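Model the whole thing, not chain by chain.
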Amino acid sequence: METIVSLGVGLLMGAGAWLVLRPTSFSVVLGLTLMAYAINFLIFVAGRIDRTSPPLTLKGTSGWADPLPQALVLTAIVISFGMTAYLVALALRALGDTGTDRIDGRAGDGDERP
Amino acid sequence: MSSVPLALLLLLPFLAVPVVVAVAPAGRQAVAIVAGLAMAAGVALLAWFAPAVLAGETLVVAEPWLPEWGLDLALRMDGLSFLFALLIYGIGILIVLYAAYYLPQTDRLARFLGTLLAFAGGMLGVVLAENVLLMLLFWEVTSLTSFLLIAYKSQYHDSRIGARMALAVTGGGGLALLAGLLILGDMAGSYELSVILASGEALRADPRFPLMLVLVLLGAFTKSAQFPFHFWLPNAMAAPTPVSAYLHSATMVKAGVFLLARLYPALSGNELWFGLVVTTGAITFLLGAYLALLKHDFKGLLAYSTISHLGLITLMLGLDTPTSAVAAVFHIINHAVFKASLFMAAGIIDVETGSRDMRKINGLAKYMPVTAALGIVAAASMAGVPFLNGFLSKEMFFAETVAHPAFEGVGALILPAVGVVGGLMSVAYSARFVHDVFYNGEPVDLPKTPKEPPRFMRLPVELLVVLVLAVGILPQLIVGDLLKAASAAVLQTDLPPIKLAIWHGFNLPLVMSIVALGGGLFYYWSRDRVMTLHERFALEISSPVAFERLYARLSGAAALAMARLDRNSPRQYVGLVLAAGLALGAWAWLVGAGGLRGLAGPLAPTAPDAPALLAFAALVVGTLGVAVLHRQRLAAIVFLSVAGLIVALAFVRFSGPDLALTQLSVEVAAIMLLLLALRYLPQQAGPEADGQRAWRDGWLAAGIGGGTAALSYAMLTRPFETISAYHLAAAKPLGGGTNVVNVILVDFRGFDTLGEIAVLAIAALGAQALLAGLSLRPRVGNAQGDADRLPVMLRQMMQPMLPLVLAVSVYIFLRGHNLPGGGFIAGLIAAVAIVLQYLAAGIAFAQERVRADFVRMLGAGLGIASLAGIASMVLGLPFLTSGFTYVYPPLMEPVELASALVFDLGIYLVVIASIVLVLTELGQMSTREAHEAAPAPEPGAPAPVPHDREAQPAAAPVAAVAGGS
């Protein structure tokens, strides 16, 4: 299980890195979303994946998962949404101001071909 | 004595700066009076110090500032500090008075005098500092204020070039000085002058002494315009004349020689000092005097003369005998007095004639006799004419050159020869100043007819010339005590007997003076031949040109290097950051963790089960789908949602229900966001042209993915000790909740969460600000026509759904403290419901019904969360302390009320408002677009469509995907 979890995290991260290196803003947004998945998930599994019970201290439960990484990641998920939203707004603004969706503001390969 | 007067002496000018600025509206006079009063108060304070200082006392006060760096606020008042403080404040009064008349009425006097006062404060800091690092700090203040003052007339190219050059040279010297002083402090074991000055022997024995000495000398020589750094001073003459008189003759350029005098006991007394300082001083003395004669601009003449005299002072300090040091101190005083008066006289002539060219200005003695008389006396003092102060110190210098034991035989003639030649040339340029400006026929086409200046503009010159005469005639009475105290402070040992008198008998120095005077007049008389020779043979190396060339070359090289390194491309930055991160991680791993063998930890991995493998396969498909198909953007979004869903399922699988709920609802919001954005972006991106780059990025991405996977695997196969035991144990008894994640968020780490929702709010506001007023053309046409522009199914479904979903959201919010849920998740659910309503019914329809101002709601949420924290402070508890109680309503289960619920409500509101704000702003862009397109329709175009049609193209895919998630 540890192996496929690690592979999954690596896959998300690698795909995210590939996408943030693409020339257009939309790909960068996609890439950052994938990287956010990867990192959030990596922090989450830092609490280990062998616990059987959610961190709800109800009567008759035990073996709780580590609540601390979960609390950290919960806000991180919401904030990464905020960041994505900001990035999308920035991308649209740049499109409006420069007329291209290339992130370095110069028209070139990767643009929509008319 | 207390430390207050000493601190006040330093701070007076700085304190006066805001006052000067504040009284500026009251007019020039008020500004000048305030500045003048500050200077006068300084002189009065000095008078209070005078008895003790002149009696030879040294006062040191210290207040620790950054003791671990050896930097203390330590001030020192001794004879040398007193002398310089007197020059700064005394000449300062005169300069303020003079500047008030000199500057044109249209100039802002407050700005000028404010900067001048700041300079005076910096200069006082240099001379009053006991700690050498503190001295350096103020040293830089003088460099900076000097830059500002030279560039005062910033509309002129010359001013800007001159200022830049002065800053580059003195600032560079300041760096060398910093290094030198750090070494010096390290050698002496303290940065306090008292310690440094007392450990001269130990310092000279240290192997680092030569390096330190050269660095300190670099600082002093650049500041005091010594060869080969002298070129900045003539260019600094672009400054208004009060600045030239104050900074560039009387005070700032003396900072270098002040430093030599101040550190004299620590630095002098060795061959290196003698060789470097005497050589530099002698070259500067001769070169400055030679070039001064050749200048047609009289301010240029005075500038080179200043360089020459600074060289003379340096030379005398370098001679390294007690009497020569005394002579140097005496010449510092004398030069400050006569040169300041000369500069001010020159400024008067400049203002009254409108020119500074001595080929045009002639015969002014007829038009302005009083000014002429003053100028002539001051210039005579510069030339070393008897009965004037300049004569006395020059005579002492001649006596030193004759008596100096350094050379024997023919070599013994070197120093006297330097003295006589330099003196001779000084006489020549002084003669030129007097003869060309005040006599030599009639003025040649001057812009103005010269006349005497206003009474009070001339007053400072008159006072200084009186001083020139008084010191010249009654030296012992006027400056005897001051010179003794200052010299004692320089030497830090017993003083040699000083006899200040005009007549020392008919001796060799007097003969040298006579030779210099006579020879100088002859030299001046044959100046035309000198100028011709100079023009024919002088080397074509001009320092300012060389400086500018070097400057241009350096900045060109820097620009080229920057252009090479930085292509202004965020792609490049991202690539570099990722590559650097990968390299650092790999390095740490390979060097620190014992190579790849250290990858797997001691724990054996468990076998994956079938659902996990299935989910992994789906994740691979989703992730690779996004990565490969990212140019087919709609498809990429679909694949992205698959990856997000798998992550949410993984949260469920590994016991994180809160996370799963959050991830799911964020996923829905994010997909909506991307779809709305896609409406305005190109639907497809073209192929990339640069295949090589794609390969490189691919390898980098593979490395990062592989590295992250390795990191994760290494972590998961190692034993783990949780630090959350406290949170699990205390959640119920202390936080009153069983959902530990939620208790952590709203209670244990509530302050953290407050910061996080603030970040979310800022991001949402930022996004809204970016989108506000933006008008983009939607790229998606109405392909399906008007038939299904608003999805009927969704619309019909949302009408009953909205209240239901909102109710669910409230339920999830309320139960969050004990079961999965809470403000974040509930907020996300509510936001998604509201946005779905917008999409289903159109912006206009929804806005009529959902009348919430989401920016206000954002503020309210943050306010509630903050108030929840502050409320506990009102009760005397720390910020965000929570409490809870149970209430027992009749016929119901006991209900728990936790104060953290109020905080959670704040979170709830912020989350709803942030998401709805961003998404509606994106949606509104299409209505705005329709409005803006309306006034100018294309010929034959149909009438603008109603608003609620506009949300349609985005709505259709949202409905599909959101339903699918």
